Amino acid sequence: MAFRACVRSIMIFWIIIALVTAAVVLAITFPLLRPGSAAGEVSASAAARGIFASQLEELERSRKDGALSAQEFESAKAEISRRFLKNIAGEGDMPTAPATKPKRALALVLCTFIPVAALTLYFQLGNPEAPSQTPELRAQALKARAEYQSLVDALEAALAAGKGDAQGWRLLVDAYRNLDEPAKVKDALRRATVDLPKRGLAVPAEFWAQLGAAEVGTAGGTVSKPAQEAFANAMAVDPKNIMARFYLGLAAQQAGDSAKAFSLWSALQRELPDGMPLKAELKRRLDAMAAPEP
Hints:
This protein is mostly helical. The protein folds into three domains: 1-127, no CATH class; 139-203; 222-294, Tetratricopeptide repeat domain (Serine Threonine Protein Phosphatase 5, Tetratricopeptide repeat), CATH 1.25.40.10. Helix content is 74%, strand content 0%. The chain is built from twelve helices and no strands. Helix 3 crosses helix 6 (166-178) and helix 7 runs antiparallel to helix 8.
């Protein structure tokens, strides 16, 4: 078991290294490989966002296939977000210079240099979270955290300037979660639900559901009216949203409508896959509701 866990950790590490390195290399060399034109513009950041989205999709597939546990999935997602945040923040949509020849030689050099430099730097610095790190490495880790915060600030500024999309807001929310700042998580989600429609972009159901959950946390576990509105919006986008359905059932229970809560939770419990913790939790709640009064 320990051996399998070790092998899986190593696999996750190299998956992250490969995905992030490929994305960074593409983001940097893409403008160099494509000839510019007077009529067209190439957005390196747009290409980078597409690669980042594909990385998340690949991780999600690995999670669904059982290759990654929920904890490993979240860890890998956080690591990719951290490494890729700098590429997303502050770049905006920068057109390439018009009528230029592809700089293939420079692109080839970068394709070789970037992966080597990244791996060299990693093995020189080591893991900043390791408990056995020296005072020097701890100082470097603190510096890295400060740099991470500066990247988050840059992403904040880019989103405030209207340069982002749903993926940018998702990165910001994840970043604040990594920094353990729930108030900023909630604020970022709320701003995303306002900003995206203004720019003609759809608000993902997960944003509404997470905002509702944040409202519940702020209200001390009560599914408040703002939370219910957020969950209703999530259901309007995705009627199968698990988080929204659970909390709307909880709202019904808290309002004294046990029949509605039982109906909502029963339907959700039937649809959840076996082995999912929420399925067991719902069964416990449903059994308690069905039990006769003492």
